[in-house]
Each structure stands twice: as C-alpha cells, then as structure tokens.
Amino acid sequence: MSNLNITTEKRALLEAVNLALHRAMLEDENVVVLGEDVGVNGGVFRATLGLRERFGFKRVIDTPLAETMLGGLAVGMAAQGLKPVMEIQFLGFIYAAMEHLVSHASRLRCRTRGRLSCPMVLRSPMGAGIRAPEHHSESTEALFAHIPGLRVVIPSSPARAYGLLLAAIDNPDPVIFLEPTRLYRMNPQPIVDDGRRLPLDTCFTLREGSDLTLISWGASVHETLQAATLLAERGVSAEVIDVASIKPLDLDTLEASVRKTGRCVIVHEAPRSCGVGAEIAASLYERALLDLQAPIQRVTAPDIPPPLYRLEQLYIPSPEDILAACDLVLNYA
Predict the structure, then answer these.
(1) DSSP symbols for 1-62
(2) Is 135 an active-site residue?
(3) Which one from 22, 100, 104, 136 is the annotated catalytic residue?
(4) pLDDT digits (tens, 9 = 90+) for 97-129
C-alpha cells in the first residue's frame, strides 16, 4: 500500500480504466489480468498499457486467440481464490465464451450452495462509432442482463469508469464490465486516484429536471445530455439519469424520477427488440402507471447488425432522434 500515490489530473475513460486496474493490482495481489494482447501490447486500445512492466508476466497474462479457453480459465481462477480481470477484445467476439459465462460463472455460487464464488470481471469494448466492421461494434448488453447471477455495468464517464471498475473487481460474483469505445478518448475529466469505489446497482442522476425524465447508459448518455441541453434552450427541464448498472436495475431511482416528471424517454444504442429499455419501460408501467402523463418512448438502434461506418451515424440514436421522442411525450394530449 505504500506504493499508492493519490494524484489528480484530467483523464479520458480509457485512461481511467487503466488507472483503476493499476490501483486494484497494487491493493490486492490476487488480482490478475488476462486476455489477448493485454501484456506486451497493452491491449488493442491500450487499456492495459504498463501493467505487464509493473506487475510481471505471472499477473498480466497474454493468452492465445481463444475466447472459449479464456472464459473457462477465468472461471477456474476465480473459483480458487484469484480475482481475474479478463479482456475480450470486442464485444462481438464474446459468444465463444458464453458457455462458461452462462453455465458456470453465473451459477457457481448457487451450484455449490455458497461454498464457491466467482469473483471475476469480464471487460470488453462495446458499441459503434469507431468506424469498425461488424462484430467490433456490438451493443448486446441485454444478452447478459437476462442471465441470473451476472452483473452488467456500463460506465459513461471517466470518473464512473474508475469507481465502478474498482467496485466490480471487489465484488464476489461475476461482473460484465462494458466500455463504450466511442467514449474512450472523449471528454477527459479530473480523476482523483484515491481508490474510492462507486456503488454498483445504482443509477446516477446527472441532471435534475421537472418536465421529463431521460434515461440512458453507456455511449448514448452523451447524446442524451446534448438533447437535454437543447430542451433547456426551449424552456423544458429534463432530468437525465445514467443507469450505469443495468443488472440489477436501480428501479427505485427511476421510479422516483418518473413519478416527479410524469414523462419518460429511454435511449440506448442496442437494437430495440427485447432491449434493456423495454425492461425499464415495463417496470415503470408496473410501478408508476397512474403518474405517467404520456406513454413511455424508446429511442434505439434499429433491429439490424451494426452497419459499416458510412451508415453509422444513421444507426446510432442522435440528439435529434431523442428530441423527436421528447416532443411526442411533451405534446401528448
């Protein structure tokens, strides 16, 4: 612990992830990082840069290009007392590891009646906006949110990436930690490297408002905040909530906001059908139907694979798309 230095400087989300990994590995020698190219190359986006040099090859492990093996290895490590932080290079490459996530990581505690747990974190870049081909631009968080025993966390700012990743590594059960690639180098903010954890399973209210609730997570928080600013110029007070932990959902915070404003728009980059937005909408209808003054609207990507980069901006929900949905709920008779 004597090697820990508290520093404050502006860092982007990618740098905040790197800082949190350094902090976690310094605090706990059981934390190990593994994945394809995480060591010598520092990861495809350089999120693990410098870890190999500082902590050695036994704690920062370059693995073969084999996601199935990587998933099984992480589960085995976690079951025997280590805290593996595994990286999948892009979310679209995760499907080969799903067997281990669904059949083993998520249910190890239940299967052994609490004798074993699975304190692993799976990190992966997610989402479109970086001019990459398909399988590099997926937003399939709903797949993991459906699995009992998995937590799903998606930060939308450097500060939340730092605090939530540290909390995820501490958690005694598996966490899917998804990092929006188009936010990796956007909007640096001061980060105090003090090891402070942010709470999991909690929404963050980014902007108070009284006329309308805007709910989002991940990269779409960026466009949602832009839309809230445009609404303010029109005299509309929008409350903006970053869900952050989409499994479990902090429905109490969402319900309280919707009861206050009476109107709600949900924004996410994932495809519309069976998305997390539908789960939030259904839950809010169950809890707060009589306080709603208009039907809840969803602004999402269409039900197609992420397109090549020339069409990316048509695929990703824009501030204009969000404003159109806001007009529907604000003008509902």
Answers:
(1) -TT----EEEE-HHHHHHHHHHHHHHH-TTEEEEETTSSSS--SSSTTTTHHHHH-TTTEEE
(2) no
(3) 136
(4) 999 999 999 999 999 999 999 999 999 999 999
